[in-house]
Amino acid sequence: MQGGPLWSGSHQDRPVPAVERTCSSCGAVGAPKPLHVRSWACQHCGVLHDRDVNAAKVILAAGLAERENACGAEEDLVAPLRGQASV
Q1: Residue 79 placed within a domain
Q2: 68 domain-assigned
Q3: Which of 13, 58, 65, 71 is surrounded by the most beta carbons within 10 Å?
Q4: Which residue range or ranges hold the Cas12f1-like TNB domain (predicted)?
């Protein structure tokens, strides 16, 4: 097997940008943070985030947006999470 993707038909050309610093509430992208910073507050909306939980929410929202948008147009990464308090 030669080098390349391990899965066929993937959308690896459309990476999820900065999941660890994108606010899952408003979508604002903050400044890079060192790994020892485990929680942070969004400078735009003020929501306090756990780094790992927030990244998981952003990845979930990106997956939901990708599933709903099979045409490849630009999408709002956190739109699927807005109004879902249980996520």
Answers
A1: no
A2: yes
A3: 58
A4: 21-59
pLDDT at 1 over 70: no
How far is residue 18's CA from residue 82's CA, in Å, rounded to a whole number? 19
Count the domains in the chain. 1
- 28 or 70, which is more confident? 28
Distances (CA, A) of 73 to 8, 10, 17, 56, 78: 21, 16, 16, 23, 15
Structure tokens at 5: 């993707």
Q: What range does the domain containing 53 cover? A: 18-29+38-74
Q: What band does 23 get if pLDDT is binned at 50, 70 and 90?
A: very high
pLDDT digits (tens, 9 = 90+) for 54-79: 999 998 988 887 776 665 555 565 66
